[in-house]
Amino acid sequence: MLDLTGKVAFIAGAGSIADGWGNGRATAVMMARQGASVFGTDFNVDALHGTSSAMQAEGHENWEPWQADMTCSDEVKKAVDACVSRFGRIDILVNNVGGSSPGTPVSLSVEDWDKQMDRNLKTAFLGCKHVLPVMENQFDREGKGGAIVNISSIASMSFQVGGRVHVAYAASKAGLEAFSRATAIAYVRKGVRVNTVVVGMMNTPLVVHRLTKQLGASSAEDLIERRNALVPMRRMGDAWDIAHAVLFLCSDEAAYITATQLVVDGGVTASRLSPSEHAAV
After folding, report:
1. How many angstroms separate the Cα of 270 from the Cα of each of 16, 77, 233, 241?
2. 169 counts as catalytic
3. What is the pTM of this model?
4. What is the pLDDT of residues 47-70, one digit of tens each?
5. What angle do CA 179, 184, 185 make, to 5 degrees?
6. Band of the pLDDT at 225, cuts 50, 70, 90?
7. Residues 169, 174, 208, 242: which is the catalytic one?
8. Alpha carbon distance 255, 249 (integer Å)
9. At what angle do helices 73-87 and 123-142 cross, to 10 degrees?
């Protein structure tokens, strides 16, 4: 079940901003555990070193870290070429690069708008732009194309996260989901499936190292407790919840699934929390 032996996974954003398991790191290690060869990119070399250490600790030898700015087309092309040179093919692409900054159309700077569009949407576009020809060529030769998973956010549905307005983040993630569906249909007869994992509130190193300060919480523990209370399951998810969702969509068991979104949020978007509840975090 969910066996990836013989497959090659290209994970964009495979590092983590701190010790622990971010979505990209967990996904990269999960792919390796299931037998895939994994090529992982990140802009931050230290973030990649942490993933390399995790791979080494588990004895995964078919792992290649690569520093790349996924907003730069030339760097993405070089990374894709390096992956094919090392492993001979690309069967799986996971676009996990992103970032958010709160703001309304008035308060948000043009620079921050552009950065979020680049990180959340352009990175997926460039990843697909340079990987899709590889997958299409594989389909022409072997009848096997590939699977692409883009990582989105429930901000694309609720348009506010924790009572804070994120116009650029919401717009870019909604655009990412539309991009995924359109690309899926464009390549449905070329052996490539494209899906989106829509992420809810997660307990990852991001909470401790960025959101605690950004939200003015008294401590990381206090912020985690408040965020847990907003989830119908009464707990946030973690990076492994995302990694398992990505693994399924990339596996042969999901061979009839394309152009869809898999929401991993513990029931948040279905619960229709009131504005006062959202304002608590």
Report:
1. 29, 39, 12, 18
2. yes
3. 0.93
4. 999 999 999 999 999 999 999 999
5. 105
6. confident
7. 169
8. 8
9. 30
